[in-house]
Amino acid sequence: MTDAVVDDILIVLPPLLQTLEALSYVARYLNPPDFDRVMADIGDPEQALHTARAHLTSWPSDFAHIRLAFDTASDAALVSCAGLRAVQRGEGDLVDVFRALRQLPRALEALFPLAATLPPLSEFFLDPAVENDAPLRQTLAASAGKDAVFHDHNEIGNRGGFSLYVPEYYTADRAWPLVMALHGGSGNGRDFLWSWLRAARSLGAILVAPTATGPTWALMGEDADTPNLVRILDLVRSRVAIDPARMLLTGMSDGGTFCYVSGLERSSPFTHLAPVAATFHPLMAQIADRDRLRGLPIQIVHGQLDWMFPVEIARHTKDALAKSGARVVYREIDDLSHCYPREANVELLRWLMS
């Protein structure tokens, strides 16, 4: 790289990553009554990003792909911040907050291909739980340049496709744990992949993020999603070595509820279930296959502040499933609203791998 390009990277990357971390903080701690406080907590990191971008020079064509990734990620981050600030000023509502936060995974997707060549970005895409894991960093450095994220008919707006993450250091000489992560209502797998990628990259797991065949998962009526999940799983297993004893079905909100709908079926191939911020009807435990439920590892993750599915639902679900013979682990997070707790992923993976 030229000195000018290196200088520009050193100028823009720190405020860009700080802004993305601030947006992640908002996404994690978002609770409607606390919105103004959460926004005050993050300060205004986007101002430093605005200033840094104003000082960027023109880059040689050899580095155009890096500049494009930086520009794409910065634009997405700034649009997200602008949307959140508008709601702060009373120019929108909770729907506009969610709309603004949709820009965060777009920024992450733009930056991730550069993790192979820029160590600060590689570090950014690791979970804090592995901050002292020097062998992992050496392994990642030795695997630099390998494609790791793939999309199969999963462009934004498409339904029924999936996105896949295969760790850069994947080898076919052993079986790998698999996580199939289901997005929330009206979401998509391409975006939800980024809720899990850090943990999968840090601990070594195949990650699949499908998109529902309809506007959300088939929670009522004909179930077109379960056959599609099986199709996707079969396709992934034909490409990479999966441990049949360690296959987790997890999801957020509607995706978590569909973990119950699909994962409690007798023929489900998944060995572990982990619904997050989900709802559950007691009849589901009563009509579920007894043999399927007996000894089935289920981890329920729910927030005390959940305003969509009150925490009492999760508590009753824990009791109903345990009474039906499942091996239930229950995690109630006191500062979690109806949000995705990314910090739970490493513990879920360790539970899966144990």
Automatic annotation (TrEMBL):
It comes from the Bacteria. GO terms for molecular function: hydrolase activity. PANTHER family: FERULOYL ESTERASE, UNNAMED PRODUCT-RELATED. Keywords: Hydrolase, Signal. This is Phospholipase/carboxylesterase/thioesterase domain-containing protein. The lineage of its organism: Bacteria, Pseudomonadati, Pseudomonadota, Alphaproteobacteria, Hyphomicrobiales. It comes from Bradyrhizobium oligotrophicum S58. Gene3D superfamilies: alpha/beta hydrolase (3.40.50.1820).
